[in-house]
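Milestone M4 deliverable, item 7.
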Amino acid sequence: MSGEFLLKIKRAWKIWFALFLVSLLKPVGVFAQDFEPDQLDELLLLSEENEKGWSSPLNEFGLTGSLRTGYWSSNRLSDNDGDFVASSVWLKLDKRLRRGLTLYSEAYVYDEDTFGGGSTDRQIKEAYLHFRSGDWDYRLGRQIVAWGRADRLNPTDNLTPRDFTLLSPEIDEDRFGTEAIKISKIFGSYSTLTAIWIEHFEPNKLAPTKVPGLQFIKDVPKNDNQYALKFDQSGGQFDWSISYFNGVDLNSDLSLSGLRGSDLLVIESYNDVEIFGADVATISGSNRYAAEISYTKTEDSSGDNPNIKNNSFYGVFALERDFGDDLSLTTQLFYRRVSNYQDPRQIVQQGIRTVASLSALMNNQLDPDEYGLNLRLGKNWFNDTLELEISGATLLARHGFLIRPKLTYAISDQLKVTSGMEYFRGGADTILGLQEANKLLFFESRYYY
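Output delivered:
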């Protein structure tokens, strides 16, 4: 680690200790836990029966949430700025209106630099009506659609976006929804057919691309109807699904548009894709085996257009092992294959070569094949009040790695503190190398209400 990064570690501990002392002054009790969106349906069925434990007056109206504050040694904008005290207010509404009908919403107000005078960000993550009638299930409104059975690396998860700039210790909290209609039909005990229509396109939120000599302009489709189908089999010896998505790529392609002054003008455009996917998982003893694959068909199936991604295959193959005593390990091998590959670095014209190479690097298409390894080790102590997670990834074809240790301690049912680090290292020709400016330390406290 560099001397500058070690200085950030020392400074981070001083600031975090002060924040930690302040957080201890807040009243404590039992909190209403944060649950993933996919768990909400099951919780709703139990909410009327489970009246044990602590609840606040807000809970009577279906409201829960959290107050958060923490120190971050860097942001996720690749700009080398550092030392942020971030604060936010998160709120969930989970209200059963009548039998079978539920209103759900989640939103936050967030200030990345509380003492630096930065702007306040607001995000409505979800806001939808959920209705069940017999074997039919309906959701209407702004919603997150998360697909895939692999652990965090999900080739079939392409419908709704993420905010990769959000300063949060929890990986899946960067998800946010789009306006959609989701209809599911249940067949028997294990099978479900789901159809989704997405009315409004929103892309992934990434750090602004900053390259000397290049200026970037986004070209985001205003409205582009998208749809998806999925058949899912869950509950038998094997859980599996097949899926199809016809819509817009969440990540942009880059194309050279001309000159602006002495700089090249680059357009970030979002093109149509078709994605065919499948996943399968099974449990045998203490092991869980999973595989998830997708094939993406783009507008450049021939591979001749350097401004648009090529067709590609993406696969993840995973083994999850439970060793007992609250110790687990997940190992994943991921592989990408680019169809009709042509090396953008061999383009003769310099401007087109520069932009096409950057676009291929950002979209994992700089090489015809890319493969790597992803690991996650988890251990809990003291009745799950202390949780350690060490995750990381490495590229096997090129030099590059990520390591992310995280420690979480529940001081009480209402107060939780988390600390950790994200450390990127890689060559300039790797996606991990592009994120070296985002290596950081973080410390956060959460008060649940």
